[in-house]
Structures are given as C-alpha cells and as structure tokens.
C-alpha cells in the first residue's frame, strides 16, 4: 500500500527507515540477479519487439560479415529464429528500444556485442575483452543515498585514499585500448560523474566511437555546459537516478538531494535537446532503487513520463554492508566475472562494484592493459573459485548475493 507521502513527511520517513532496515535483514537471504535487475520497466519508445527481432534476422541473413563476427552472429541468428523455446539470446523490450536508434549498417556490430554481454556470463565464456566496461570518472558524490556505499564513512573519508577523480590522460588511454573491442560501457560507478572536472572533455573524446555508451547522474549538477557535452558527445543512454516522484520521499532516499533542482535541470536539458539537437538518438531514462511501497510506477510515470523515454525501478542490492554481513549459502558463480570490468578513477581495476573498497583488486590500468587484466591469472583464479562452488572461501564474495 503506497504511503501518502504528499501529506505526511513524518510517516514517509518512518516507512523509509523501516523498509531499508527490513531489506538489509532479508536481502542477504536471496540471490540478486544482476542481469535481470529491473523490477519494473516502462517505455515511451514502445518499440515493437517482434518487428525489431525480425529486422535483426533479415539483416544478419543478408550480410557477409567479417570472419571474427561469424560464429557469434550465427548463434544469435539461430536463437532468434527458434520459436516457442527458451533461448540464451532474445530481443527484450529495452533491447528493442535501443535497436530503434541503431542504423542498419551497425545492427550486426550491435548484436555481436549484445550477444557477448547476454550470453557469455551464462556460458562462463571468456574472450580477450570484457563485454562491458564500467569507467569511474570520480568516486566522489554529493549525495548520501540510504542504499548506497557512500554512507560508509570509512569509504568517503579522504584520509583513507578512496576519494578522487580520473585524469583525462588515463581516460583517453583506456578508451584507445577498448575502441573496436568493447561497445557497451558506463561512465559511472561509485561516484557522481559530473563532479569530475574533465567529464565534458571525456564525453567529447567518445564521440562516434561506441554504440552503447551510458552515463548515470543524479542530475543535481547538470549544468547547461554539461547538457551540450552529453548531447554532442558519444552518449547513447542518459540515466537520471531518482527513486521517487515527490518530496519528502525523494530527499529521504537521496539524502542531500533536492527534487526541485533536479527537475529544473532536466527540463533545461530537454529544452536544449529539443531546440538544438532535434535529431538526437539519445535515450533518456529515470531509474530508481526500489526499497519500499511508497515508491510506485504510477506516481513515477505521472511525474517523469513526459520528461524521459523510459522509467525503471531496479531491485535493491545490499552492497553498502557487504563487508559486515555474515557468510551466506550462495554457491552460484557471480555472472559479473564474465560480464563486466570496473576501472576506478585511480587506475585500479575491480571485478565488481559490490566490493567498493577493492579487496578483490584485479590489477591496475597503469601497469597492464584492459585485455591483460581481464585474462590475468588472478582474475582466472577468482572465476575458478566461483565455478567450483568455493565463493564461500572468498571475502567479501562469501557475504554477497549477486549471481
């Protein structure tokens, strides 16, 4: 039953605190499906899933692709032509939405990398590059969301050395390494990317290089200058992180946040997009973490429906207390070990962001390349421990529920 948050701030905050506390107690007993983290998803794009699947099949059948693409695209084609059976690869609603923004000439390239992202983690298959790369422009954030590891004082304390921003030179080096090998990546992880002083330059450097560049922002610092950088840069999906449609619930979840300021910034972004970038293929999304019944899609759509292309809630993941929780009985391997790699602002490379303090440190971009680290012996050892049902021997994996 949704809380009447418009009328009663005190009631809302009680529900918020109780909901988070309850979730922290129960979330460690359930596995977190990283690949299927959407709890709710609605779209104004409303792409026809069947039509986009048919389009992909037609293009793949007609084209003579490069040798390195043939094996994967052939497997993707078989899956897409298999009717009434559960297959590893399929066109879902959000993939169909993305395909509407992809020119025919780039469909095969998109499907090749989407297949690697969707299927390789299921098959525990590895090649020379991660299917998805997450680059952190900064670990600093101006919010203290109740479900985030930014609430961990030992992480945010400057003296502990985990706060900082990536240099443009380091960013450029990583991009140069992965261009042509990785199509999907995010500019975000532990911090708010718009805090990074070089973020606009970073976005400009990505122009025309990727099919699936996403940036996540709380939009509190979305200046006019940043709007132009996002719209003229290489961004394909812009995600505004917001978990509520009304105050005081918004600022109780996104502590230090101001919903009115965020709305003002997004309205300005849309005006700039409409007037100066009318041909933009950028997809915009509001995405929130679902933590209580006061959050509901009806109110979210009422507020955000005319401002963005998509609205989603993702399932709460108890990452902010992974170092304190007791070992659990999860033995299934973590899919992220075959799906994505995280590059922190200082060059450290981590296999996941649940381990936000880098206990599982996989390497450093200043010492080895993305490809070398991805295939490194230590990374492989971690994968083998998970495959052999020994994640209970690995800290902090033994307290994590991500599979």
Morphology call: globular
Strand content: 5-15%
Count of DSSP H/I helices: 15
Category from helices, strands and their pairing: alpha/beta
Number of strands: 10
> What's the story with the biggest beta sheet?
10 strands, mixed
Terminal residue distance: 30 Å
Order of helices and strands: HEHHHHEHHEHEHEHHEHEHEEEHH
Evaluate the radius of gyration: 21 Å
- Average pLDDT, rounded to a whole number, is 90
Percent range for helical residues? Answer: 25-40%
Q: Any low-confidence stretches, pLDDT <50, length ≥5?
A: 1-15
Strands side by side in the biggest sheet: 1-7-6-5-4-3-2-8-9-10
Verbal overview:
With 403 residues, the chain is an alpha/beta fold. The chain is built from 15 helices and 10 strands. A 10-stranded mixed beta sheet has the order 1-7-6-5-4-3-2-8-9-10, with helices on both faces. α2 packs across α3, α3 packs across α5 and α8 runs parallel beside α9. The longest helix has 20 residues. The radius of gyration is 21 Å and the shape is globular. The two termini are 30 Å apart.
């Amino acid at each position: 039953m949704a809380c009447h948050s418009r009328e009663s701030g005190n009631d809302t905050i009680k529900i918020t605190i109780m909901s988070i506390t309850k979730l922290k107690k129960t979330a460690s007993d359930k596995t977190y499906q990283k690949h299927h983290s959407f709890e709710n998803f609605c779209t104004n794009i409303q792409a026809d899933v069947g039509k986009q699947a048919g389009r992909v099949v037609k293009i793949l059948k007609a084209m003579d692709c490069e040798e390195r693409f043939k094996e994967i695209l052939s497997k993707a084609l078989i899956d897409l032509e298999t009717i009434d059976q559960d297959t590893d690869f399929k066109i879902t609603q959000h993939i169909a939405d993305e395909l509407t923004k992809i020119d025919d000439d780039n469909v095969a390239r998109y499907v090749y990398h989407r297949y690697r992202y969707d299927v390789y983690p299921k098959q525990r298959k590895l090649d020379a590059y991660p299917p998805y790369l997450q680059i952190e422009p900064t670990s600093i954030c101006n919010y203290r969301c109740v479900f985030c590891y930014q609430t961990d004082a030992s992480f945010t304390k400057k003296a502990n050395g985990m706060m900082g921003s990536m240099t443009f030179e380091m960013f450029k080096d990583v991009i140069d390494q992965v261009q042509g090998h990785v199509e999907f990546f995010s500019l975000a992880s532990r911090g708010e990317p718009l805090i990074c002083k070089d973020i606009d330059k970073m976005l400009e450097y990505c122009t025309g290089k990727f099919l699936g560049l996403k940036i996540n922002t709380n939009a509190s610092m979305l200046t006019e200058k940043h709007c132009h950088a996002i719209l003229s840069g290489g961004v394909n999906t812009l995600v505004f992180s917001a978990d509520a449609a009304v105050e005081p619930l918004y600022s109780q979840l996104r502590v230090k946040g101001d919903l009115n300021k965020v709305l003002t910034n997004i309205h300005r972004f849309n005006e700039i997009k409409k007037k100066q970038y009318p041909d933009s293929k950028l997809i915009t999304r509001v995405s929130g973490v679902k933590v209580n019944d006061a959050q509901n899609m009806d109110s979210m759509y009422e507020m955000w429906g005319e401002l963005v292309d998509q609205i989603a809630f993702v399932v709460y993941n108890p990452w902010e207390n992974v170092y304190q929780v007791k070992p659990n009985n999860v033995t299934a391997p973590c899919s992220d070990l075959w799906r994505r790699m995280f590059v922190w602002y200082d060059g450290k490379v981590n296999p996941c962001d649940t381990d936000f303090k880098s206990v599982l440190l996989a390497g450093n971009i200043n010492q080895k390349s993305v490809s070398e680290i991805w295939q490194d012996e230590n990374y492989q050892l971690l994968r083998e421990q998970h495959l052999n049902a020994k994640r209970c021997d690995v800290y902090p994996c033994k307290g994590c529920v991500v599979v």
